[in-house]
Amino acid sequence: MDAVRSALQPITHNLPAPIRDLGVSIIGDKCYKALLLDIDVENTECVKFAISKGLGIGIVGASAIVKVPQILKLLKSKSASGVSFLAYLLETSSYLISLAYNVRNGFPFSTYGETAMVMAQNVIITVLVLHYSGKASMAALFVAALAASAVTLFSEQTLGMKELGWLQVGAGGLSVASKIPQIAAIWSQGGTGQLSAFTVFNYLIGSLTRIFTTIQEVDDKVILYSFVAGFALNLVLALQMVYYWNAPSAKVKGKRKEALPANSPLTPSYAEVAASSTARPRSKGPTTRRRG
């Protein structure tokens, strides 16, 4: 280890100022000195903190595109089959409350940044679901209500921290409840429809990672328990995605129902066709017999 430290220290001690400042802003002076200047990998506290920060930043970055496949899938199919409006309504409401709670408490952005990214994509998906369900007017009402709620939640004059804290407890319940309509929709339809596998599995990994980063950086049991419950239901969704992986969509099932099945009582059997052809009298054709 001494040889590695001797080789790395000339580099870490001469990093450009912008990189050094960025490192200090992410992990702090203490851990920057321990991990980069002293190369002390035995400092478990700083190692776990640095890992937590790295994972948090990774989640925030990935969240910018986590629901893009879902958006593209809706636009391509022009169908909201398999996507629950209620699930997205509850999740978006939960994310808005959590975003306001984290911002007003001054928690590190790396511990909640994905909330803003995912919420923006949720709004787009919810509007598309309403549009393809023939409820375009409700989409405008949804956006207006969301904007009014945001103004209320972020305003200290309108809503105190104590009241916001109670709302955050409810937001944890909303986040958990938001998964139930989606799980029920998949179960009732016998397939995942237009639900994106990329989104589901990224949610599963992200919620598990958030449990670790919350333990390391945020001393708030309400947020921690909401991530634990969210991970459990994300796991159910992921298992459903695997189970129904090759199941036909509702649209395909509809087409199959329109086609007459081979064993339908309306379809004549081979025996019926044969009997019909035998019983049918043959028309008399021309004859070569002479009359006379």
UniProtKB/TrEMBL annotation:
Lineage of producing organism: Eukaryota, Fungi, Dikarya, Ascomycota, Pezizomycotina
A Gene Ontology cellular-component term: membrane
Keyword Magnesium in record: no
Gene3D superfamilies referenced in this protein's UniProt entry, alphabetically: 1.20.1280.290
Family (UniProt): Belongs to the MPDU1 (TC 2.A.43.3) family.
Disordered as annotated region, ranges: 256-292
Protein name: Mannose-P-dolichol utilization defect 1 protein homolog
Transmembrane segments: 83-103, 222-246
Top-level lineage group: Eukaryota
Keyword Repeat recorded: yes
Compositionally skewed regions (Basic residues) per UniProt: 281-292
Topology versus the membrane: Multi-pass membrane protein
Keywords, comma-separated and alphabetical: Membrane, Repeat, Transmembrane, Transmembrane helix, Transport
Entry's localization field: Membrane
Main location as per UniProt: membrane
